[in-house]
Amino acid sequence: MVVAAALVLSVGAAQDGAQVYTEAGCAGCHGAEGEGGAGPALAGNSNLEAAEYHISRILNGGAGMPAFRDQLSDAEIAAVANHERMSWGNSFSEVSAQEVAQERSGQSGGDGESGGTQSGGSESGGAADAASTQAGETTGTQAGQVNLSTEVVAEGLVSPVQLTAPDGDERRFVVDRVGKIYILDAENKRLETPFLDLSEKIVALQDDFDERGLLGLAFHPNYADNGHFYVYYSAPLRASAPQNWNHTSHVSEFTVLTDQPNQADPASERVLLEVDQPQFNHNGGALAFSPGDGYLYIALGDGGAADDVALGHPPIGHGQDVTSLLGNVLRIDVDRGWPGYAVPQDNPLVGKEGHDEIYSWGWRNPWRMSFDRGGDHGLYVATNGQNLWEAVYEASVPGNYGWNTLEGTHCFDTQLPNESPEECAQVGANGEPLLLPVIEYPHLANQGDSPVAGTSVIGGYVYRGAALPELQGRYVFGDWSNDFAEPKGQLLMGSVPNTPGALWSLEQVAQLDAYVLGFGEDSSGELYALTTDTTGPTGTTGKVHKIVAGE
Fold first, then answer.
1. Which residue of 64, 181, 213, 531 could cross-link 177, Cys pair, CB 3.0 to 4.6 Å?
2. In this structure, are residues 304 and 277 in contact, taking their beta carbons and an 8 Å threshold?
3. Residue 132 is assigned to a structural domain of this protein
4. Is the pLDDT of residue 356 over 90?
């Protein structure tokens, strides 16, 4: 239920809780009390026993409720919370107006640091926790007015998927899926000669749609001194790969020419990793160095097809099989182990079953991954869902992120991919908890009353620039398009909740008349959206849009 008009309630003396509850329309938002207590939207939520949870949810909205921060007085909020307490049989003490005032004054509007422990990726994950958030329970901050726009700073590309820059470098490097990396200078001029051209090394791409290609770029933290950078690209299938598989992913190191800073040395390639892929899709491909530990993180999808079930997929799926490199985020030390790499000894599977390189597993298609350059330097991974749900994870904690036991916070069944079963395993194959996302939204066919729906999440960045102070600490990302036939990409924003463990608040801040392929961050922390007008890697409609303040 959505309350469209402002509530007309007296401010001052506490009203009868049932009256306020009814006038505010709360009962219609999350189910009648007589039908299972808190109603289906809150079923199984252990947070209901905490008074502050009720207060924060009523202030900020949750389970489809409108936010009452500005409409109700402290006494009226307390009355609603106490009515819920009595109706639902909760055990916390009676809520006072003073408690509400303290909670209200302690809510900052969400512009604080957003890294680290404020995440759904905590040790409390699992299907039981998934049940508490399946209906979209979201206790978020009130973001305030955010008005964003975009301005095109580069065009004439084919299929741009990433923009990045070395620390302290005013140049911006744009990754085009077709195998080329271009430089944009400080005046937004694209240098004619690519910084690196791998178009002859990548697999032949399909014109209508393809998820392969040159997909990732990361500069070494000491790039200014050593000139090293790293790329992820899809090469033709190597001879030693399983028969009938599709291609082989390469993670390679290159070095810039010492006398030509705008030109990489194509002969300097050092292949660090080769991973065979059974299908053309679900490649992942993002690379990122942690500002905390200095290691290189590598995102790999589950190998493709659908449901993690197809030729080349193990019975439990690549996502849950730690003896496979697919469906994982890897973590390696590129400064040791020459001519290859070394494995950090605190990686979670060192000395256990599974590949030592694995940092986290249970990923379907981690399409874009980034570290927060501020805060606690949290790791954010967006992963494409199957048929129903898209999700973003604060994935700093190593462990199992659920696929294909979970799709976001929801149970998943490979035999029923268009449904979210009520029950599923609560742990992984080795008893580890299943970690949950911080952001989730439905597909269009499953939208219900969600304010946001889409088809394919495109991971972004926590904003730490200076030009848009209202975005500080918020996660800016997008969705490929809310229409397959017509390009209608979305620019989205997530804000950290006041209630630990709750999903972040989510809103659409702009719509782009293009397919959104990726996002970028320059050395100053300003953000960019990368788009194309076609579904496949053809033509020259690829653009780079800088995210700027709206009018």
1. 213
2. yes
3. no
4. yes
Number of separate domains in the chain: 2
What Cα–Cα distance (Å) separates residue 528 from each residue in 205, 390, 462, 463, 520?
25, 21, 12, 11, 5
State which of 90, 107, 124 marks the end of a domain: 107
For residues 72 and 172, membership in a common domain is answered with no
Nearby residues of 351 by Cβ (< 8 Å), 6 or more positions away:
none
Q: In this structure, is residue 313 part of a structural domain?
A: yes
Burial class of residue 5, CB neighbours in 10 A (0-12, 13-18, 19+): exposed
The token pair that represents 311 in the structure block: 């030729």
Is the bond preceding 482 in cis, omega lying within 30 degrees of 0?
Answer: no
Asked if residue 153 and residue 103 are part of one domain, the reply reads no
The alpha carbon dihedral of 244, 246, 251, 252 has a sign of: positive
| pLDDT at position 268 | 98
My answer on whether 97 and 185 are in the same domain is no
pTM: 0.77
Provide the percentage of residues in the chain whose pLDDT is more than 70.
78
Strands 399-400 and 358-361: parallel
Supply the pLDDT for residue 75. 82
Which range (141-145, 226-230, 517-521) has the least confidence? 141-145
Domain extent for 320: 148-549
Closest by CA position to 364, among listed 398, 397, 400: 400
- The CATH number of the domain holding residue 229 is 2.120.10.30
CB of 460 closer than 8 Å to CB of 489? no
Same domain flag for 170 and 96: no
Residue 28 within a domain: yes
Residue 515: left (phi > 0), alpha (psi -120 to 50), or beta?
beta
What is the rounded CA–CA span in Å between residue 210 and residue 212?
6
The per-residue pLDDT for 280 is 98
